[in-house]
Write a structure and sequence with these properties.
It is a single chain. With 456 residues, the chain is of the alpha+beta class. The chain folds into 2 domains: 6-99, Immunoglobulin-like (Sandwich), CATH 2.60.40.790; 151-418, no CATH class. It has helices at residues 93-98, 119-128, 160-164, 180-194, 197-209, 216-221, 225-232, 240-247, 260-279, 288-295, 297-300, 317-329, 338-353, 356-371, 378-393, 397-413, 437-455; strands at 6-10, 14-20, 32-36, 39-44, 47-52, 64-68, 73-79, 420-423, 433-436. The longest helix is centred in the middle third of the chain and has 20 residues, at 260-279. The protein starts with 5 loop residues before the first strand and ends with a helix.
Length: 456
């Protein structure tokens, strides 16, 4: 059976469903429709459509269906059980297809914990998300080690083919054979090796003293459309193409014990994509997938944990994320500028505050960078397909908005002195030294003044 294209709208009394039936001979006798509480079924071979709404519909004498020949569609009006009730998510057709039955109506064999549409519960959920680092007792190591990664840590042994084909996003020496702490350790080492103090100092001095030689000011002044949307309190609109992309997402229900790592990954993906978007002033390039992949530790290092399990000093996961993304932003992209980092975090804030649809729209765009790539597609398989589907069906709008607020406060409290790398600074030394951004800027200023004094 084929799932037809369809659109859903509503008024006070009816849910209006337009089902498109191209290239078949219409026969009224072949049409079957069923309305059962919150479920609607339409059948016209070879088309079959099953939708679940957030409210109940009825099949009575007011129900009506008519064929619109010039549009090759059937227009169906189904009465609402409660007149005036507002059905949610009608502008997200893929979510209507993916809804599962309410657990109270038909208890499943395995219940999904935390599924609720109660607004008070959602508000409490957002309040309860304190974003602290979780202190969990480590389980004993299995006799035969297994190494999982990706969405909800449900994938393993999937990186080998990608690596053999030349996956240059990957930063791990043996991604299929490393535990989370080993991934973090190697990630930190690679960041320290990659960071170039001279590159950062040069960008800093150029922006400050030779702005005519740099386009950084223009990049920082570029206004991301999401900021305009946030400022105007506009509703996020999804295009036909985006709806089609959602139709291609996995249609399954996810049993997630801990949703926090999923929200953390959403934040990192938003940051990576919005960094690349701002770096190119709203455009994307053939290198965009590489840049986003390198920036996001969950992709390049398969690192969903982000902090060592034996770390007892750091308590705020949002701070860990902010510092991690700042470090990576000063190592990999073409533009390595701290003001760029804070500007992109503001873009992330606006996206989160615009709610689930704005977040989903950005994640879908990010997914496109990897979906058809010969090598990078693996990141769709282990992360982006599932995460987009989970965001569509399960992410809490309230939690996302609260996350944006808390993240903004956290980023504002971070100082340049806290962004630290380990480098060998002296040419005749092999000893690693801690160096932060303030140190580098001060050394750059001294060097600049000495250079000016020598030339005058």
């Amino acid at each position: 059976m084929i799932t037809p294209r369809f659109e859903v709208s509503q008024n006070d009394e009816f849910v209006v469903i337009k089902v498109r039936i191209s290239n078949i001979r219409f026969s009224a006798k072949a049409v079957e429709m069923v309305a059962d509480d919150d479920k609607f079924i339409f059948s016209l071979p070879p088309y079959y459509l099953r939708l679940r709404f957030s409210g109940s519909i009825v099949d009575d004498e007011r129900a009506k269906a008519e064929f619109v020949p010039n549009e090759e569609s059937i227009l169906i009006r189904m009465p609402k059980l409660t007149k005036g009730e507002v059905f949610s998510d009608l502008d997200l057709p893929a979510k209507l297809l993916g809804r599962i039955e309410n657990a109270e109506k038909k208890p499943p064999l395995i219940e999904e914990v935390g599924e609720t549409n109660n607004l008070e519960s959602l508000a409490q959920e957002a309040q309860d998300f304190d974003w602290e680092v979780e202190q969990v007792e480590q389980p004993p190591a299995p006799l035969v080690p297994q190494f999982f990664y990706g969405f909800n840590n449900q994938y393993s042994n999937m990186m080998e083919v990608s690596l053999s084909n030349g996956n240059d996003i990957n930063e791990l020496s043996s991604p299929d054979k490393m535990d989370p702490d080993e991934r973090i350790n190697e990630r930190l080492i690679k960041e320290n090796l990659k960071f170039d103090p001279e590159y950062y100092a040069n960008e800093y001095l150029t922006q400050k003293y030779f702005p005519q030689d740099s386009n950084i000011k223009q990049i920082l002044c570029w206004e991301n459309p999401i900021r305009i949307q946030h400022k105007n309190h506009s509703e996020t609109e999804l295009t036909t193409e985006e709806h089609e992309r959602m139709m291609g997402l996995p249609r399954k229900s996810y049993l997630v014990d801990n949703v926090r790592p999923l929200y953390y990954t959403i934040v990192c993906l938003l940051y990576g994509y919005l960094y690349e978007l701002r770096q190119n002033e709203g455009e994307l390039t053939v290198e965009s997938g590489w840049t986003v992949g390198k920036l996001v530790p969950q992709l390049s290092s398969l690192d969903s944990q982000l902090i060592q399990s034996n770390n007892k000093t750091e308590t705020n996961m949002l701070r860990v994320i902010a510092l991690t993304m700042a470090r990576r932003s000063l190592c990999y992209p073409l533009i390595r500028n701290y003001e760029m980092v804070t500007t992109v975090w503001e873009d992330v804030y606006c996206t989160l505050r615009c709610g689930t649809k704005a977040v989903l729209k950005t994640l879908l765009a990010c997914r496109e960078l990897f979906r058809f790539h010969d090598i990078y597609y693996i990141y769709c398989k282990i992360w982006l397909d599932d995460l987009c589907s989970w965001t569509l069906n399960n992410a809490s709008d309230t939690v996302l908005r609260n996350l944006g607020h808390e993240l903004r406060k956290t980023v504002a409290e971070i100082k340049k002195q806290e962004i630290v790398f380990e480098k060998i600074l002296a040419e005749d030394s092999e000893e690693l030294e801690f160096v932060n951004l303030t140190d580098i800027e001060e050394l750059a200023e001294i060097s600049y003044r000495e250079s000016n004094a020598a030339s005058s």
